[in-house]
Design a protein that fits this description.
The mean pLDDT is 96. Helix content is 28%, strand content 29%. The two termini are 36 Å apart. It folds into two domains: 89 residues, Nucleic acid-binding proteins (OB fold (Dihydrolipoamide Acetyltransferase, E2P)), CATH 2.40.50; 301 residues, Bira Bifunctional Protein, Domain 2 (BirA Bifunctional Protein, domain 2), CATH 3.30.930. Helix 3 packs across helix 5. It is an alpha+beta fold and 426 residues long. Strands 6, 10, 11, 12, 13, 14, 15, 16 and 17 form a nine-stranded mixed sheet that branches. Strands 1-2-3-5-4 form a five-stranded mixed barrel. The chain has a three-stranded antiparallel sheet with strand order 7-9-8, with no helix packed on it. 38% of the residues are buried. It binds 4-amino-1,4-dioxobutan-2-aminium adenosine-5'-monophosphate (4AD) and magnesium ion. The site of 4-amino-1,4-dioxobutan-2-aminium adenosine-5'-monophosphate (4AD) has 24 residues, from strand 11, strand 16, strand 17 and helix 12.
Length: 426
């Protein structure tokens, strides 16, 4: 028997043709009337209403059972997609137990049954956009001549702050789960020049916010012979490409999620660049209790971008709020050449990037200032000894990007099995 995807029932069909077809999937909705059962079937491509005669065998059917159906595609203007399946015969493949997810369940419960909740239309739409995002990113890097590389996840030293490290027993020694592939990408530019990676990153963040995960997917790039201004241009090109591409390819999913695809078509270069010092002044004017030298929190980032419709860069930050590898600004030694990209409409930081420090002594001192041991970084320091070149890079949080693009409230809804401070099950 040959089976068609549900989407086939709606494609290029005239009202008069009544094709006999076979489809299969899961029971999404059920309604029983006097003579008929109205069953809505779902598969990965869509949903369709199917009408079955009411009889003893068909009445056994339950929500989320897997079934194979044979019937006639018939035009019906009252039906959501304009077509239905009539005169249906059904083969039940896996009869489902009483499905635990009904309307009005709490967020907590839906997270407990995430393995089932992932079947919902909302999550299905998000995962399709996620797929498109990753595909677009890969396409952009490939078209632009960058090499994809595979950095390690179990490491001896930290890349970012020591306070968010996950420690792992490594054959009786101590290792850490990667927070960022950056240091390894920096090593790889000396062989491939323009490199990128997509890896899991781990942060033992002790914060329960709608934008923090303990495990997230990190999209990072590093480029040889590249300065600060050039890397910001690359970041904005990449994001513009991704947003425009998703708007074009996934407009139906976006609309269903409450994001107007037109919003994403407007994400075109250049993005505004605002100096950190101006951001502080702006926030002070808005009544925020913040001073030069403070890091920005979610509230501050929200205030800055709530009325914007494109991402914006905050650049030129004080060195105390940025990691050891950021390049000291040659014009002001208290500042570093680092920039955060902040998503519009209050969604907050989506990337950090910038130029990397090349001076060996400066890096060694800053590693010590952060409380790390330069011995753990001797391989990294070698990169400054053997043919060092100016270079820059960036890292985007895939789920942060999706939260903005899909317009969802909580970051956990952008990844199938979220890991947060309170949850690593299911
Ligand atoms: O700003 P971060 O810490 O910068 C780095 O890790 C650099 N080494 C990247 C680089 O230059 N290669 O992290 C980069 C991005 C953030 O802007 C954010 O989008 C995301 O990673 N991110 C998180 N996403 C989800 N949950 C968390 N706990 C995250 N922490 C960072
Ligand atoms: Mg950052």
């Amino acid at each position: 028997m040959r089976y068609k995807p549900i989407s086939y029932c709606f494609e290029g069909r005239s009202e008069s043709d009544k094709e006999d077809i076979n489809i299969r999937g899961w029971v999404y909705r059920l309604r029983t009337q006097k003579d008929n059962i109205f069953l809505t079937l779902r598969d990965s491509t869509g949903i369709i209403q199917c009408i079955l005669p009411r009889n003893e065998e068909n009445e056994k059917i339950t929500i989320e059972s897997s079934v194979e159906l044979s019937g006639k595609v018939v035009s019906d203007s009252r039906s959501p997609g304009g077509y239905e399946l009539h005169d249906v015969s059904m083969n039940i493949v896996g009869l489902a137990d009483d499905y635990p997810i009904r309307k009005d369940f709490s967020t907590e419960f839906l997270n407990d049954v995430r393995h089932l909740w992932n079947r919902s239309r909302k999550m299905q739409n998000i995962y399709k956009v996620r797929h498109e995002l990753l595909k677009s990113a890969r396409e952009w890097f490939d078209k632009s001549g960058w090499y994809e590389v595979s950095p390690p996840i179990l490491n001896k030293s930290a890349c970012e702050s020591g306070s968010t490290l996950f420690e792992v027993d490594y054959f009786k020694d101590k290792a850490f789960l990667s927070q960022s592939a950056q240091l390894y990408l920096e090593a790889m530019i000396y062989t491939l020049e323009d490199v990128w990676s997509l890896t899991p990153s781990f942060r033992a963040e002790k914060s329960k916010t709608p934008r923090h995960l303990a495990e997230y997917w990190h999209l990072e790039g590093e480029k040889a012979w590249t300065n600060f201004d050039e890397i910001l241009e690359i970041e904005e090109q990449l994001i513009s490409y991704i947003a425009n591409n998703i708007a074009e390819k996934r407009s139906e999913e976006l609309k269903a999620l409450g994001r107007n695809p037109e919003d994403l078509k407007k994400i075109i270069i250049p993005f505004d660049r605002i100096p950190y010092a101006d951001v502080i002044k702006f926030l002070q004017k808005k009544g925020k209790n913040i001073k030069f030298g403070d890091d920005l929190g979610a509230d501050e980032e929200r205030l800055l971008t709530i009325d914007r419709d494109k991402p914006v860069f905050i650049y030129g930050c004080p060195k105390n709020i940025k990691p050891f590898y950021t390049k000291i600004d040659p014009k002001d030694e208290k500042m570093v050449l680092s920039a955060d990209m902040i998503a519009p409409n209050g969604f907050g930081e989506i990337s950090t990037g910038g130029q990397r420090e090349e001076n060996l002594e400066t890096i060694v001192n800053r590693i010590k200032e952060e409380g790390f041991s330069p011995d753990d970084y001797s391989w990294y320091l070698d990169l400054r000894k053997y043919g060092s070149v100016p270079h820059s890079g960036f890292g985007f949080g895939v789920e942060r990007l999706l939260r903005w693009i899909c317009n969802v409230e909580h970051i956990r809804d952008t990844i199938p099995f979220p890991r947060t401070m309170k949850r690593y099950y299911p």
